[in-house]
Fold this sequence. Notes:
Arc Repressor Mutant, subunit A, seven-stranded mixed sheet, 8 helices, about 40% helix, globular
Amino acid sequence: MAKLRRVVLERLMRYYRFLSESSFKKPPQTITSAQIAEALDIDPTQVRKDFGTIGLLGIGRVGFDVCEVCRAIRFNLGFDQRQEAVLIGTGHLGTALLAYSGFASYGLHIVAAFDSDSDKVGGEIAGCAVKPMRAMKPYIKRRGIRLAILTAPHEVAQKLADRLVSAGIKAIWNFAPTRLTAPPDVLVRDEHISLGLSVIAHHLAQATRPDRGQDTEGRAP
C-alpha cells in the first residue's frame, strides 16, 4: 500500500464521513463524483483523482458504489485494523476522550490510562483502568502499544513524550498545548484547540467590528 499524502488522507476522511455518517433519507447505492463534490465543495476531478489513488474506478453515468468506496477508504486509512492506544493524563479533556464511544468505529481502542494523581490511580474512567505513571513504560512494552494520546499539561508534555518514545510508541496524538519533538520515525499529530478557536474568534470579530475604512456612520474618512 502506497503512503498517501496528508492532504489526500484528509480529503478521504471527508468523503468517508459524508458517505457513512450523512443522514440520507434513503442511503444511495451509488453516487457520482459530481454529487460528492457539490456536497463537500471540492472539484469533481479531484474527487475522481483521490478515488483513483486508492484503486477506485467509477462507472460512466452511474458513479461509484457507496459501500465499495467506504470499504476502500477504511482499508487505506487502516480503520479495518484494531489499534490499541494508551491515554496519558486524565484531566477534563482526557476524561472526555475516554468517554467518547466513536473511536471504536475507526479501529481505535484506548486500553489504559495513566495519571500521576493518586486519587485517580486504581479507579476507572468510562470503563478504562487508570494506572500510575511508573507502570506506563512496562505496560506499553508488554502490550506492544504503538499509539499514545497525550493530554498532559504543557510543562511535562515533552518529558512524557520522550518516555513514550523510549517505550516503543510510534505515534503520539498530542492534545497538550505545546509542540513536541520526536525522532523521524515517530509521528506526532498536534491538536491545538486554540488554533480552531482563533479562526472562530477572528470570524466573529470581523462580523461585529465596523469597516476600518469607514467612520462609525458608514462614511469613508
